[in-house]
Specification:
Elements lengths: L6 E2 L4 E2 L1 E8 L9 H18 L2 E8 L2 E8 L5 H13 L2 H4 L16 E3 L7 H13 L3
Antiparallel strand pairs: 1-2, 3-5, 3-6, 4-5
Helix pairs in contact: 1-2
Length: 136
């Protein structure tokens, strides 16, 4: 039986939607143009491989927000780690602007929410402001 909007596999049937956000290393405003497109493609391809669904992907110059429906066995931290790695892999060679940074993303930092409906933009912006204040 197929339950509408749920992800089914041999172990579970689930409807888990994460709202995730993370920032560029040193909060540099670089997420635009071709780089933004390449990151979006990498995130979509990774989600397709993992049987996750990208519901929404929004870019700001210094951070991105993704709403993704994941499987029951995937924690928010796992999803962020996989998407950060996939979206950074190979892009340093393709985009010279990234070679100046120690990495594309702030290493372990991210925002996560499991709230449905509207994106919690106020909380995401507070998270981004906190990241700007941190010098790491």
């Amino acid at each position: 039986m197929v339950i509408q909007n749920y992800i089914e596999n041999e172990k579970s049937t689930s409807l888990i939607t994460y709202c995730l956000a993370w920032c560029v290393q040193r909060m540099r405003p670089i997420l635009e143009g071709v780089l933004k497109d390449d990151i979006a493609q990498a995130i979509q391809a990774t989600c397709d491989k993992k049987s996750w669904k990208v519901l929404e992907l929004n870019f700001s110059p210094d951070h991105l927000v993704v709403r993704v429906q994941a499987t029951a066995g995937d924690s928010a931290e796992d999803v962020v780690k996989i998407l950060k790695n996939a979206s950074a892999a190979g892009l340093r060679q393709k985009h010279a602007s990234l070679r100046k940074l120690p990495g594309l993303w702030k290493s372990k930092s991210f925002f996560a929410s499991t709230e449905g409906g509207e994106l919690p933009m106020e909380q995401i912006l507070k998270y981004c402001d906190m990241q700007k204040a941190r010098k790491v």
